[in-house]
Amino acid sequence: MSSFAPRCGVLHAERTPLDLVAAAHGTPLYVYSRGAIEHHYGELVSALSAVEHLVCYSVKANPTGAVLRLLAERGSGCDVVSGGELARALRAGFPPDRIVFSGVGKTEDEIAAALEARILCLNVESEPELRAVSRVATARGLVAPVALRVNPDIAAGSHAYVETGKAGDKFGVPWEDAPRLYRLARGLPGLLPRGVDLHLGSQILRAEPYALAAARVAELVGALRADGFGIDLVDLGGGLGISCGEEPPLTAPRYAAAVLPAVAGLGARLIVEPGRFVVGRGGVLLTRVLYLKDVPGRRYVVVDAAMNDLIRPALYGAWHPILPVRPRPGRTACCDVVGPVCESGDFLGRDRELPPLREGDLLAVLDAGAYGSSMASNYNSRLRPAEVLVEGDRHGLVRRRETLDDLLRLEVE
Question: CB-based burial of residue 8 (10 Å sphere; 0-12 exposed, 13-18 middle, 19+ buried)?
């Protein structure tokens, strides 16, 4: 579903013209569609309805409070990877028993905060972390529900930076070491081993790696239960990609068809941790053309958004569609859309066929709802963008634009 489409020659978010939103709040500006986010969440819930399940939205994809609140209201759980994300999730209204805590480097303070909040499960990624959770739990007289994140050594076929399920990756415990570590967990005080967890990576567009991972997890659950473990949670992680360019999307029904045959008979609660799938297509980054710069063999469209606002093209070579909000008639030209940051890697799109542009024109960078604002920075001492949520023909500010006072307020003179 795309909630960003032209109406009467103007690109809209749902029923709201994007140029109207930009005029009210300035640029660069993130704009989210409530309808799109709710739709994509609902697609996954519906596809998994044949089994008991919990969709735990991956907060790192987009931690804006308004996005978290609307998903909490829809019944979503969430997956957090830091104490800050845990605080955001609780503030947004996620019940603790719908929160899982992942991540390879949890501090003891973060572990304590999770246990004191009584979250559903800690996904543990190493033997030293297992011992740390035991230490923290026993010091507080608590029992920590844990799942071991196992590394299934499956290549997901995405970018090397976001693959997390191959042997040698920093994530999880080696598959062959899992039985020993579960037995260790059973013997350590303050631990309740109740789940198996894995995560293959991000921006995965093929169903086959998920089918293979689900089958491997089902085999491990069977072996653990035969060894006396009461495994009642199976967490398959997230990573469902959205289409880029001509690639076909991984739909919720295709994903469900891949994983459900292996896990449906386990009698365990299935947990999935989507991020980009839920919010990626639900957001755009609006930016204005500052200058048109022609050099031999190249036209640069210099805009007021930059790699500090949306780093994915520079970091991963990610491809985001770029459209004029009010396209002008005429022949297209091949352009590089670049920002003001002093880096040659500061681009939002290269070799894009765009219609005629003028200074001041408004462009929309699509599919920017995930890992856009959440990865934004103050590089070059630039101010991070404002964020707006659209619902039908209404829109409202959900995060104000940073000011120079915000930029400087943490410095000690």
Answer: exposed
CA atoms within 13 A on the CB side of 95: 8
Q: Which fold has domain 34-277?
A: TIM Barrel (3.20.20)
Close Cβ partners of 182 (under 8 Å, ≥ 6 residues apart)? 148, 193, 224, 227, 229
**Alpha-carbon distance 413 to 410, whole Å?**
10
68-98 pLDDT per residue, tens: 999 999 999 999 999 999 999 999 999 999 9
CA atoms within 13 A on the CB side of 145: 21
For the whole model, what pTM was predicted? 0.94
Q: Which tokens sit at 326?
A: 């009010």
Q: Which residue has the tokens 């029904």?
A: 253
Decide if 382 contacts 293 (C-beta within 8 A). Answer: no
Q: What is the residue whose two structure tokens read 């409530």? A: 34
Question: How far is the C-alpha of 160 from the C-alpha of 177, rounded, in Å?
Answer: 24
Nearest in space to 44 (alpha carbons), one of 322, 280, 307: 280
Burial degree of 55 (CB within 10 A; 0-12, 13-18, 19+): buried
Residue 98 half-sphere exposure toward CB, CA atoms < 13 A: 22
- β-strand pairing of 29-33 with 53-58: unpaired
Distance CA 368, CA 371 (A): 7
Q: Cα(123)–Cα(140) distance, rounded to whole angstroms?
A: 19
The Cα 236–Cα 214 span in angstroms is 7
Assigned token pair, 274: 């989507």
Catalytic residues: 342
CATH code linked to domain 4-32+280-408: 2.40.37.10
Give the rounded percent of residues in the chain with a pLDDT score beyond 90.
87
Q: What beta strand segments (E) does 250-391 contain?
A: 269-272, 283-295, 298-303, 322-324, 333-338, 347-354, 362-365, 386-391
Q: Residue type at 46?
A: S
CA–CA dist 25, 23 (Å, integer): 6
Angle 257-260-261 (CA atoms, 0-180°, nearest 5)? 90
pLDDT, mean of residues 11-40: 98
| Start-end of CATH 2.40.37.10 domains in the chain | 4-32+280-408
List C-alpha distances in Å: 61 to 97, 140, 202.
21, 32, 11
